[in-house]
Amino acid sequence: MQSFERRSIVNGALLKRHVGQPISIHLKLDRADDVCKSFSGKSTDGVNVQVMLSNPLNGVCSGWVEVIGTAAPNGMVHGKEIITYFNSGEKTESFDVDGHNMLCTLLSV
After folding, report:
1. CATH code for 8-107?
2. Which of 32, 36, 46, 70 is placed for a possible disulfide with 61 were both Cys, Cβ 3.0 to 4.6 Å?
3. Dist. CA 78–CA 20, nearest whole Å
4. Transmembrane ranges (predicted)?
5. pLDDT at res. 61
6. Pairing of strands 61-72, 22-32
7. Is the entire prediction scored with pTM above 0.70?
């Protein structure tokens, strides 16, 4: 059985509180190209976040993604894993950013 690494679910504003800790953050990407090792996206609360990867992406990413990694200073994340959800159309627009921000706030108290 695979073990689960504990992590905090954060948005852009809460990222700086978790420097050096494992986190999960949802970002909306315009586009991240195949074999790139860094990209940026906007968090659910509109903050620009830069993601640095140890291994290059395997394919093009766009739309909403979940980045699992370690929070770093200055709005950066050292990403370990990328989970893609939506890549176009209606599903991208229906992601509940307000609900996700409320979840982040609730979990941080």
Report:
1. 2.40.50.140
2. 32
3. 10
4. none
5. 83
6. antiparallel
7. yes
Query: Radius of gyration of the chain from Cα atoms?
Result: 13
How far CA 78 is from CA of 27, 34, 75, in Å, comes to 14, 18, 10
> How would residue 93 be classed by pLDDT, with cut points 50, 70 and 90?
low
- Cα dihedral 71, 48, 96, 20 in deg (nearest 10): 10
Residue 39's φ and ψ, nearest 5 degrees, are -160, 170
Q: In this structure, what token pair is assigned to residue 28?
A: 């909306």
Q: How far apart are CA 69 and CA 38, in angstroms?
A: 13
Sequence-distant (≥ 6) Cβ neighbours of residue 8 within 8 angstroms: 14, 18, 21, 22, 23, 24, 107, 108
Using CA atoms, how far residue 72 sits from 12, 20, 23, 33, 36, in Å, is 12, 6, 10, 23, 19
Q: Which amino acid is at 81?
A: E
What does the pLDDT read at residue 13? 94
Alpha-carbon distance of 56 to 73, in angstroms, equals: 21
